[in-house]
């Protein structure tokens, strides 16, 4: 008779711990997927409309993984009406990435109906090509964030500072991107606010997952590199 209260106390004290231990030793599918792909930064992870199949979003890409078989699937999921669920998800990802950007910190150029958000290295040759392209367009409003890639363009950092130090940043940006300063001596300021703004531009580029320049979002649609065919298609609404 005296042993029963002790038994009840044991169950009350240790049963929750036992449950906790079971939870810890049995990670769910989403935890297993993160363990399975340690080399990528997963931005989105969730179940698809197909039972047992998970969607993994990273770096503007989406792949699918089936934990039970261990198979990875690269491609698109289409509805019976031919609508790409993969493309729809990518569009949602893009919208999430750019909707809260502090555009007031960007270099604003133009006042057209199309919104172009650009991440640019001032010494990147393809950035200069897109800058020349947009210079001829009056139908765009551009928001430029600077991301100097000094590993391959050692002067890009100084040129970025030159732009941000200038009283007219738009003019200085066009000056640098036209290549006018490539063979001329130029001075930059030592303003702490400029340093902080340049660091903020870099942080934004990294947060957007930019791996190369130019990277753009035109009216919310992602464009990687100087893809003039795609840029024209978006701007012309085709």
TrEMBL record:
Superkingdom, natural source: Bacteria
Record's keyword terms, sorted: Signal
CDD domains per the UniProt record, alphabetical: DsbA_DsbC_DsbG (cd03020)
Domain Disulphide bond isomerase DsbC/G N-terminal: 32-86
One Pfam family linked to the record: Thioredoxin_2
Gene3D superfamilies: Glutaredoxin (3.40.30.10)
Location of the Thioredoxin-like fold domain: 110-218
Signal sequence, renumbered to the chain: 1-21
Name this protein carries in UniProt: DsbC family protein
Provenance organism: Candidatus Manganitrophus noduliformans
Lineage, uppermost ranks: Bacteria, Pseudomonadati, Nitrospirota, Nitrospiria, Candidatus Troglogloeales
